[in-house]
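Curious: can you check?
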Amino acid sequence: MPEDKELDETVETSDIKKNNIAEVKKKSVVGAKRWPATVVLLAPFMFLFIPLYKAARHSVNWAAAVAMMATFEVIMFFAEYFSVSRQHWIWNPDRILGPTIFGIPIEEPLLYYWFPPLFVVILMHAIENWLKKRAEK
């Protein structure tokens, strides 16, 4: 057996394009552990979100914020579904939480379509409140 040929098979692009998820999982690197990278990458923002929320919770129009998040969620979910159906977006099954909705990992709509718009609204109001307090001094 030649040395340049490895024992472990790698995931081939053709398997991904054929949506052959069973083959993709079977061919994953031996010993690879599942870890939800998206949740790990979101953790620092959660630590920022808590103090910002406390600073802005009384000035946010929550009805408007929920309507904005719902609109963004619906539009982005259809855009994401289109991207997945055309295979522009492909996820490593070892790097997602597991459950999917129409091929979209559950953390996409929950973490990326819900959290960033809310974070921006709360950040904007926290800065505005801070500037008002600073101007009053």
Summary: Residues 62-85 form the longest helix (24 residues). Confidence is low (pLDDT under 50) at residues 1-10. Residues 1-32 form one domain. The chain has two domains: 1-32, 33-136.
